[in-house]
Amino acid sequence: MRTYEVMFIVRPDVGDEDMDKLISTLENQVGGAGATMKNVERMGKRRLAYLVRGFHEGTYVLFTLESNSGAVVHELERRLRVTEPVIKFLTVRVDEEQKRLDKVRKERDARQRSKPAPPPEAAPAGAEPAPVTA
Amino acid sequence: MADETTQQPQQTSEGGRPSGPRPGGPGRGPRPGGPGRDAGGGGPRKYFRRKKVCKFCVEKIDAINYKDVRLLSQFVAESGRIVPRRLTGVCTPHQRRLSEAIKQARNIALLPFTSRI
Do B62 and A52 touch (CB under 8 A)? Predict the structure, then answer.
């Protein structure tokens, strides 16, 4: 199950209702293609770091969606490319990174659970079997 | 003649030793506590300014996201360029991920490619 994050920037002079319409159109398109939209986050108006299509500001929107194939994202990107109010978009695939993070966290939790005493204690009676030097 | 030839390899190895680990620099290894360098005493002090540690390793930050501009901009110079690892003390795997995140942020106009200061 692949997880993608699609972030796109909408022109700042687009009204709230137009934005809602745009977002719901994209959501329907994604849902119709068999993917699930896990999250829609409107990050608000922000100043852009450089001029994009002549604009200094833009409204950021972040989609998090799950799908089994990449064709959904391909189609979504094509839509975004043609949509006039959208001036920039970026798709990132996050499931591999998420898997790695989960693995690292699990290992860290397992390590913490097997070492209940904190090391700076320097108590001789620790949970670890200290090497006995006879 | 034979003495000269036998001395030469020694000289090149001694000359090569300081320059070998130099590209690694202070960030190499977990605790580079003076691994017996020849001129580490009072001579060229520019090897270890101070023992810089990787900020991500210390604070156990796993995920370097392209979205948190505040964190990323700490590793970006005023000109917009990515600061090299030997100045920030970041370890190699984290520097690679940081660099990728900065480039993603640049593409979505969260960070500039270049800014004239």
Answer: no
